[in-house]
Amino acid sequence: MQSREMSLSEGLVVETDTKTIMTIRQAAREYGFPEYGLRNLIKRGAFPVIRCGNRSYITRNAFEEFIKKGGERYNAKL
Question: Which of 9, 20, 27, 71 has the maximum number of C-beta atoms within 10 A of its C-beta?
Fold first, then answer.
């Protein structure tokens, strides 16, 4: 679930971590959204999530696509 990228920038090696699946709290911190706002979006079905018991996990690709589309509602029947 976690990948590491190595890049060379002006002779310096920079290591970054990117998770493909995030909790609501992690997504809120990373993207600057309030947690309650993300929870409301999830309840409305604004973008797909992974549910495990009472927890919801957000995939980075799905959430970034939601943001790029300007908040267009997710249609699971496509």
Answer: 27
